[in-house]
Amino acid sequence: MSRFSSPMPQRAASDCPGPARGAPVDCTTCRIRHLSVCAALGDEEVSALEAVVSSLHLQPNSTLVREGDPRRQVYSVTAGALRLVRLLPDGRRQVAGFLLPGDFLGLSTAETHRHDVEAVTETMLCRFRAEDMQALRERFPDLERKLLSRAMTELDAARETALGLARLNPIERLAAFLLDLSEKRARWGRTEQLMVLPMGRADIADHLGLTVETVSRSFTRLRHDGVIALHDIHGVELLDRKRLVDLAAGRG
Amino acid sequence: MSRFSSPMPQRAASDCPGPARGAPVDCTTCRIRHLSVCAALGDEEVSALEAVVSSLHLQPNSTLVREGDPRRQVYSVTAGALRLVRLLPDGRRQVAGFLLPGDFLGLSTAETHRHDVEAVTETMLCRFRAEDMQALRERFPDLERKLLSRAMTELDAARETALGLARLNPIERLAAFLLDLSEKRARWGRTEQLMVLPMGRADIADHLGLTVETVSRSFTRLRHDGVIALHDIHGVELLDRKRLVDLAAGRG
DNA sequence: CGCATAGTTGAGTGCTATCAAATTACGTGG
DNA sequence: CCACGTAATTTGATAGCACTCAACTATGCG
């Protein structure tokens, strides 16, 4: 049923936003739209970025960077999904976050990467050399400001996540996660009601600080309560958004 | 025993760094040193900042800003400690973080504040109007870069916190918290072994996603294991730093 | 000295993790 | 296209850790 002859799973393909829907995911249109929307760049900036960008294609579960790797490249995701992973010595795992189309990786000023970054599905990225990005930042002071603004937004988001991990119960965490994802997708003009979760239950569990079993039970509970519908494992429909918002805000 | 005749508690006074030790906490020396060290500014930048700064004095438990307040000022802490607080409708509380000398508040590009900000102890701050800060940022492009770098550092820290909340047990969380605080103090040239915790157990509990009882039991446990010594409620000595590091990294 | 607040300690419960088994999805080769 | 094997997910039973409730202790302040 895929629109692709390659073994690319449908859920990865459908993540390519806008004009590129149904076209190959590494299309230039997609890339330009991505760059300009995600950083709100002007035409000149987009051209300058296009000049130094190269593209990259990852298979599911392949590793893009490892914790401790020197930060030499800047990436931006155009299609697919990646996860930021940290492992504790005894196997405890945390997924710090997911990178979806429009997200950047490697803008941090840290010398090395702080997480393993792995492809969840087949993924397309734009790659810049860090020096090129640096040069662009010097040439376009505005870019610096936009990146700062973006970093601040992410910082707020990270603190929101922390609140959830500290004080929300499993159902509330899952509700917050589903809304998060839905909003991220909405920013790209995708339907808010029907959602595709690119990641598996284990990734969700490790993102929410729970076990797979608890995540599964929480899905089941939300389904029985008529808050969501599960069409298949990765296809979720948000039936009662208001209820989800209440749950995520701790008014469960 | 305080070096102050005012009712300022000793632990707040001892947070004024460097040359100002023993002098009034709002001294200009202290402020300049603070500004230049925390943002690594040049002389010219420091002068420009000094020109638009005014100072502020908070009593313990007073509120500086409330969640939802418009963001009109930028503050930097010179002495004392503040907490970033979020409350859920049913009373669940989270302390997203603490602001210690050298930390900024209000640099976010968000329109409104996302947390209540309350003084933990008597606190001194520098206050700039947000517009002045904006003007400075435009005048000194370098400042923008340093702020971005700082934001990235905080983002990394926030993700580290999230890992702890998701996957560490109470003892490990407390170990990580103590090390965090110790490192923050070390950056200001303060002793690493002996520490003063400005905040109470309830603030620590709400920061670590635990209850006061569990925090208290964890302190007791670390003390019995000879990892720390508690001289008084706020005075902690780190006896076995290596063990703390192992605990915080999940090698407990 | 007595009250109020903060912290510690103890007993019991409940929620979520753990362990185990059944069920469903999915890729592979017939 | 279907049968099979593997991996992922769901469901069930049990156990343990952290929360809750409660009592006690310490500290500070009038």
From TrEMBL, chains A, B:
Species assigned in the record: Coralloluteibacterium thermophilum
Organismal lineage: Bacteria, Pseudomonadati, Pseudomonadota, Gammaproteobacteria, Lysobacterales
Record-linked SUPFAM superfamilies: cAMP-binding domain-like, Winged helix' DNA-binding domain
Location of this chain's protein in the cell: Cytoplasm
Keywords: Activator, Allosteric enzyme, c-di-GMP, DNA-binding, Repressor, Transcription, Transcription regulation, Virulence
Record keyword Glycoprotein present: no
Oligomeric form and interacting partners: Homodimer.
Domain HTH crp-type: 168-242
Pfam families referenced in this protein's UniProt entry, alphabetically: cNMP_binding, HTH_Crp_2
Region described as Disordered: spans on this chain: 1-21
Domain Cyclic nucleotide-binding positions: 37-106
Protein name per UniProt: CRP-like protein Clp
Database matches in InterPro entries: cNMP-bd_dom, cNMP-bd_dom_sf, Env_Response_Regulators, HTH_CRP, RmlC-like_jellyroll, WH-like_DNA-bd_sf, WH_DNA-bd_sf
PANTHER family, per the entry: CRP FAMILY TRANSCRIPTIONAL REGULATORY PROTEIN, FUMARATE AND NITRATE REDUCTION REGULATORY PROTEIN
